[in-house]
Design a protein that fits this description.
The chain is α+β, with helices and mostly antiparallel strands. The chain has helices spanning 2-27, 50-56, 59-66, 92-103, 232-253; strands at 30-39, 70-76, 79-84, 110-114, 119-126, 129-134, 141-149, 152-165, 168-179, 197-202, 206-215, 228-231. Keywords: Signal.
Length: 255
């Protein structure tokens, strides 16, 4: 009888400990999540022209450059900010490759999210000007599939990205994995709005995967105030202008 009581007490103690730790994880308001990046986008070599062939040689170096890139998602109460944290080294060639790798997949700039008022802003520099882009929320579909990322049980969700560039309007399927064991709503880059924290996202061009989750001391995140406030459509127009400038540059180089 005594042994039975001891066993029950141990089970209750263990259960309470689990609940306490899980509750802490559920209610923790100050987090930092580090993500690694893998690039799946490859330069299209279907067109047989000089600059496409030369650009295709960057596929492998771009993938290698991405391996050294890390992003940070910091969460403070109802706010979050996502940005690159890996500093570029002094080698000019590697700097160029890393900057290109950072840009691929829509991960360039500082992404600010406010859960209370559902505000999402991308603070970025383009065409030598600073902008604050108002991001549209994603429409997610949650699936029954699940898997572990680290020690966290994650569920699958999908959405569609619509990209408007110089080649037209394109749609990409996005796969995300989120956990309900951590702060809900937040995620990397422009991916947020799920009933849990997104620990992995793949948009067909790149994949971000969480490698570290740390509970940190309280800190503040301030809403970005500098830069011209524009819509996503206006940002797409700016991107098209930038792409045309880059294409003209390569056309001149490889004439």
């Amino acid at each position: 009888m005594k042994n039975s009581v001891v066993k029950i007490a141990l089970i209750i103690s263990a259960s309470l400990g689990f609940i306490s730790n899980n509750s802490y994880a559920q209610n923790a308001k100050f987090l930092e999540i580090i993500y690694k990046k893998d690039i799946s986008l490859k330069v299209d070599t279907a067109k047989n022209n000089a600059h496409q062939i030369n650009l295709s040689e960057f596929n492998a170096p771009l993938s290698d450059a991405a391996k050294d890139i890390r992003y940070s998602l910091k969460i403070s109460n109802h706010n979050s900010v996502f940005k690159v944290v890996e500093s570029l080294n002094n080698d000019s060639k590697n700097n160029i490759l890393k900057k290109a790798a950072i840009n691929i997949g829509g991960t360039n700039g500082d992404f600010y999210i406010n859960k209370q008022d559902s505000t999402a802003i991308l603070n970025k520099t383009l065409l030598d000007a600073n902008f604050r882009v108002l991001l549209k929320p994603k429409k997610w579909k949650i699936h029954k599939e699940n898997k572990l990322i680290g020690k966290y049980l994650c569920y699958k969700a999908t959405t569609i990205d619509t990209v408007n560039n110089s080649k037209g309007v394109h749609k990409f399927r996005v796969n995300a994995w989120f956990t309900t064991q951590l702060a809900s709503y937040f995620g990397p880059s422009a991916y947020y709005g799920l009933p849990g924290l997104i620990l992995e996202v793949d948009n067909g061009k790149m994949k971000l995967t969480a490698t570290e989750v740390t509970f940190v001391k309280p800190f503040q995140i301030r809403k970005p105030k500098s830069g011209k406030l524009i819509t996503e459509d206006e940002d797409s127009s700016n991107q098209i202008k930038a792409e045309k400038n880059i294409k003209e540059h390569f056309d001149d180089v490889f004439k």
